[in-house]
């Protein structure tokens, strides 16, 4: 039965939601670079490791850059960079020596750049102050080479721009598991089979107007801690084999964007065998391909278009071409949260008097480095970046939030696919645990300088900020307009 006015009215009355993917149409350019350091460099940061010096390479470390610009904007260029790097220990190395140099070379504002770290635990330090162990003599040159590479790939991405369609979707991946394991009166960092982790996988497929793959963005929360202190290889951990699987299928760069991972890690972790990291990467890689497979073609929506009388009364859905949203916008906000009592170096040494002095020195250095340009009186200033790309929202911050944060924000904003990114820019490389973690004296709760309740306050602040951000950009989630 073909559609006529009466059937059209029946279709409109159907008590179903229209299947509306998050879509974007923007100007985009992509570039990649191998940033693997020389063998022998300090790249085993585990406190229990006997030596920090690397003896080989498992998979290469990579840097990716993506330029995003709106079709109908003032020409503002946004750059998204992913690095197979662990963390950056202080404000000086992050902002002064790294990101400020990059944005000055590109001629953009510092808030136009997001640098997301995969947080591999098998790479060199990206902070000169952490280059204190075997192989540290290679670190300064490595840091300089990475900074130069980031500048070069951002410029290359700028020179390769074209109009693209981005399709955003949620999938499922069960690589990550809750890693807070009750043992006695405290929580150890290890697989807890009794708790359920967030299995949400967020994927963005970037394609040219004629359908060629440009890039795949993968946002997932899980600590890359498969390889522990017994492995002395340079490695991106599970990200390496996941990248190989996806890039072999798509022929385009794989951007791994670390999600809320504060209490998440692989079931198999702290291993010496790199084959375990490859297996973990297969879980992520094939989950990504499954999510890509279920996506509709670019710039398409699935609509109820016909009611058919057959052996049964059938409802036929059809793919229709639509105009994707072309909105691109960004905003930085600051979450003001109270911090705990800040202990002096002497107090910290007294508290940890029964621990290996080398490990104590590492802890103290990290604690003191976190505070620079972050602590402000009784509070900290925690930066968060909000990006809107078409119908999708990217929320990025420097800390390591418990997964419940991304889960709650997605629940509160169901009309938008949300990419929630930990380990992005700085300062503020701190854990953001739920209030209950403090009662168990979990590692994340004593490592962080944030006071109990900060997690809950940050959710409320970000929920309000996202609403204001969308309102300010005059953005309304709308049905796509069918193309003639």
Could you explain the architecture of this structure?
The model is unreliable at 475-484 (pLDDT under 50). The chain has helices at residues 5-13, 91-106, 139-158, 238-250, 274-294, 345-351, 357-371, 404-412, 435-439, 443-447, 454-472; strands at 22-34, 56-57, 62-69, 78-83, 113-117, 162-172, 176-178, 180-183, 186-189, 200-208, 213-220, 233-234, 254-258, 264-266, 300-309, 313-323, 328-338, 375-376, 379-389, 392-397, 400-401, 417-421, 431-432, 481-482. The longest helix has 21 residues, at 274-294. Helix 4 (238-250) runs parallel beside helix 5 and helix 8 packs parallel to helix 11 (454-472). It has 11 helices and 24 strands. By secondary structure, the chain is α+β, with helices and mostly antiparallel strands. 29% of the residues lie in helices and 30% in strands. The protein has 3 domains: 5-19 and 299-320, no CATH class; 22-294, no CATH class; 328-472, no CATH class. The strands form 7 sheets. An 8-stranded mixed beta sheet has the order 5-4-3-1-6-10-11-13, with helices on both faces. The two termini are 22 Å apart.
Ranges where pLDDT stays below 50 over 5 or more residues in a row are 475-484
Overall number of strands: 24
- What best-fitting shape do the alpha-carbon axes yield? globular
Instruction: Give the termini separation.
Output: 22 Å
- In total, how many domains does the architecture comprise? 3
Structural class assignment: alpha+beta
Task: Determine the oligomeric state from the structure.
Answer: single chain
Please tell me the overall pLDDT.
92
**How many helices?**
11
| Radius of gyration, whole Å | 23 Å
How much helicity do the residues have?
25-40%
> What is the makeup of the main sheet?
8 strands, mixed
Strand sequence of the main sheet, in spatial order?
5-4-3-1-6-10-11-13
The portion of residues forming beta strands comes to 25-35%
């Amino acid at each position: 039965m073909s559609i006529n006015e009466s059937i059209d009215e029946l279709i409109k009355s159907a008590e179903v939601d229209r299947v509306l993917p998050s879509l974007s149409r923007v100007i985009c350019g992509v570039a990649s670079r191998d940033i693997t350091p020389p063998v022998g460099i300090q790249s085993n940061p585990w406190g229990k490791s006997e030596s920090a010096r690397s003896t080989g390479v498992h998979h290469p470390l990579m840097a990716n850059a993506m330029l995003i610009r709106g079709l109908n904007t003032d020409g503002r260029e946004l750059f998204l960079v992913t690095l197979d790097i662990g963390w950056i220990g202080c404000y000086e190395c992050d902002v002064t020596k790294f990101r400020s140099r990059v944005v000055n070379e590109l001629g953009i504002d510092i808030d136009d750049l997001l640098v997301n770290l995969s947080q591999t635990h098998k790479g060199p330090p990206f902070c000169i102050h952490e280059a204190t162990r075997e192989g540290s003599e290679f670190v300064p040159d490595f840091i300089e080479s990475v900074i130069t590479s980031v500048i070069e790939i951002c410029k290359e991405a700028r020179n390769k721009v074209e109009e693209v369609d981005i399709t955003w979707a949620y999938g499922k991946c069960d690589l990550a598991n809750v890693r807070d394991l009750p043992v006695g009166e405290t929580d150890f960092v290890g697989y807890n089979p009794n708790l359920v982790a967030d299995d949400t996988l967020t994927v963005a497929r970037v394609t040219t107007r004629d359908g060629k793959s440009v890039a795949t963005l993968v946002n997932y929360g899980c600590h890359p801690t498969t390889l522990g202190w017994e492995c002395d290889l340079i490695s991106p951990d599970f990200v390496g084999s996941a990248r190989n699987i996806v890039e072999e299928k798509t022929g385009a760069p794989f951007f791994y964007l670390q999600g809320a991972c504060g209490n998440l890690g692989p079931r198999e972790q702290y291993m010496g065998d790199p084959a375990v990291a490859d297996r973990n990467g297969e879980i992520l890689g094939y989950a990504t391909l499954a999510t890509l497979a279920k996506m509709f073609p670019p710039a398409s929506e699935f609509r109820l278009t016909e009611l058919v009388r057959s052996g049964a009364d059938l409802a036929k859905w059809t793919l229709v071409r639509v105009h994707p949203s072309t909105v691109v916008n960004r905003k930085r906000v600051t979450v003001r949260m109270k911090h705990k009592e800040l202990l002096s170096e002497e107090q910290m040494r007294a508290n940890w008097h029964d621990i290996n002095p080398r490990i104590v020195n590492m802890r103290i250095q990290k604690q003191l480095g976190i505070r620079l340009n972050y602590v402000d009186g009784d509070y900290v200033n925690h930066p968060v970046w909000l990006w809107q790309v078409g119908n999708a929202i990217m929320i990025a911050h420097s800390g390591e939030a418990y997964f419940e944060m991304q889960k709650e924000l997605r629940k509160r904003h169901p009309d938008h696919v949300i990419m929630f990114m930990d380990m992005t820019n700085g300062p503020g490389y701190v854990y953001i645990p739920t209030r209950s973690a403090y009662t168990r004296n979990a590692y994340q709760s004593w490592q962080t300088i944030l006071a109990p309740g900060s997690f809950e306050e940050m959710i409320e602040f970000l929920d309000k900020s996202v609403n204001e951000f969308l309102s300010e950009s005059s953005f309304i989630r709308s049905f796509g307009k069918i193309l003639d």
